[in-house]
Amino acid sequence: MARAKFQAPKGTQDVLPPTSARWERLLAAFAQTVERAGYGLLQSPMFEELAVFQRESEGADAVRKEMYDFEDKGGRRIALRPEGTASVVRAFVQHQPASPWKVWYATPAFRYENVQAGRYRQHHQVGLEVLGSADPDVDVEVITIGWEFLQALGLRKVELLLNTMGTAEDRVRYVEVLRTFLQARIGDLAEEDREKVERHPMRVLDSKRTETRRATADAPAIADHLSDESAQHFEQVKVGLGAAGIPFVLAPRLVRGFDYYTHTTFELVPSLVDSAQATILGGGRYDGLVEELGGPPTPGIGFGSGIERLLIACDAEDVFAGPTARVDVFVVDVTDGSHAGPLTAELRRAGIRCDRAFDRKGMRAQMKAADRSGASHAVIVGAQELADGTATVRPLRAAFGEHQDAVARADLVAHLTALLAASRPTDLSTTTPGKDHS
RNA sequence: CUGGCCGUAGCUCAGCUGGUCAGAGCGCCGCGUUGUGGUCGCGGAUGUCGGGGGUUCGAAUCCCCUCGGUCAGCCCA
After folding, report:
1. Residues of chain A under the 70 pLDDT cut
2. What is the pLDDT of residue A61?
3. Distance of C1' in B75 from CA in A322, Å
4. For position A426, what pLDDT does the model report?
5. What is the domain extent for residue A297?
6. Which of A260, A284, A317 is the last residue of a domain?
7. Is the CB of residue A63 less than 8 Å from the CB of residue A53?
């Protein structure tokens, strides 16, 4: 990249075809999975009043620092959404829909932070939320859908990590116990983790430093400090997942930074991706968030899933097979160039995916373009065809043989439609450009 | 915000103890007789070596700054 006057801002990226086709497939897989379960699409603004995203909690300072916030021309404090949940909850509070409210979203999310493997300043998430029910069966449904989504994508090597945060009261008690434990062995913790003991002791548990890991190996687990109510809730979730046949691993160190998180917390982690931030789908119950945003006490649960990270995991498992063909038919015009336009328009109206060359290319160049397009057939029109009132249908892939037909113009659409319908079930690799005819 | 590594044609990279060092492969374009792609052969175009400054007779090669990429901390999708 010698020099381009402008380039995409740091931490953002352009996704060009054909790579973008993977996005289309992923979005389609998600929409299909959640709509089947009765979730509706929520479209909400990509920015909100800053306060919607600002919480008082352990991690508030860090969150604020990573926020893309600014003052608009009316003097309002605005922030680009850093994640999906807050906007959904704000919309819930504003419109007061009937409970349980089950919605999904697909959105960009912005965080002003340094770029790293699987982390960007603008990334994209799909996710869902259920507001208005505290039933542990909802937890099971939400986790199941997350799981099913990854299955639908073709991901197989994924681990479900599960934990509970208990209620707010449970956590206050637990944090005291934990802090006492950590204080007793603060000297064994990694230098960088010591200051966390006072401010957010639970964060010490998910430190990646080996000294800290070793020193906290037998740290008290929140699961042992739950109220009966919390323990029961968690138990029902585990039983429900078992009944659904979804394997999970208890992860006592899996914690969330915000106070509004309660009960079930979970993450889905691809086992083939070896990077510091591998989680491709994460979520949990947040029974305090609606109230924080000015609504009535309302339980909620949901998850968000990062598209870029999902795609990294998909690549690790190689779930997106060979390249796909952009079109099925390519029109080659060797007359004065006046026939390609009307002919492609006619075919497209008939539902046939087709393309053509521009710029009055020679036949050789047009055939080359036809091959590159991935089309399985070229439709050739020249002086000879004009005279006969036909078009030549020439197969471009080995699977269709070498024989080319002169087809009457009136029969062309029907001929092609039949040809393409017959080839549909065959796998895509037979239409890979440039790999046939030995 | 802190630190490591990196930045040469569209892509992947070689060159980097300063002096034919501006290159390779792929891709792209054209040609191989008049209308047939993918294979093969021949030919061609493209880079102020990320940007700026400095050292030097001379820098893609050394130094500084800056921008960008990448990985890690932190945080999280």
Report:
1. 1-4, 56-64, 257, 276, 322-323, 424-438
2. 57
3. 36
4. 47
5. 20-167+227-317
6. A317
7. yes
- The vertex-A265 CA angle with A223 and A43, nearest 5°, equals 160
Tell me: do A280 and A413 sit in the same domain: no
Spatial distance between the Cα atoms of A173 and A165, rounded to a whole number of angstroms: 12
Q: Do A388 and A351 reside in the same domain of the chain?
A: yes
Q: Are residues A267 and A141 in the same domain?
A: yes
List bases in chain B with any atom under 7 Å of a protein Cβ.
1-3, 8-11, 22, 28-31, 35-39, 47-51, 67-77
Please give the nucleotide, over all strands, whose C1' is closest to the CA of residue A9. B68
Please give the Cα distance from A111 to A286 (Å, whole number).
Answer: 21
Q: Is residue A208 part of a domain?
A: no
What pLDDT does A322 receive? Answer: 64
Contact A257/A57 with Cβ under 8 angstroms?
Answer: yes
* Length in residues, chain A: 438
Q: Which of A317, A337, A365 is the last residue before a domain boundary?
A: A317
Q: Report the protein residue whose CA lies nearest the C1' of nucleotide B51.
A: A3
Place of tokens 């799909």: A126
Supply the pLDDT for residue A425: 53
Contact A120, A102 (CB under 8 A): no
Considering the domain architecture, whether residues A233 and A366 belong to the same structural domain is answered as: no
- Domain tally for chain A? 2
CATH of the domain at A401: 3.40.50.800
User: A355 and A376 share a domain?
Assistant: yes
- Measured in angstroms, what separates residue A8's CA from nucleotide B23's C1'? 29
Q: What is the pTM of this model?
A: 0.89
Q: How far is the CA of A57 from the C1' of B2 (A)?
A: 24
Q: How far is the CA of A396 from the C1' of B14 (A)?
A: 38
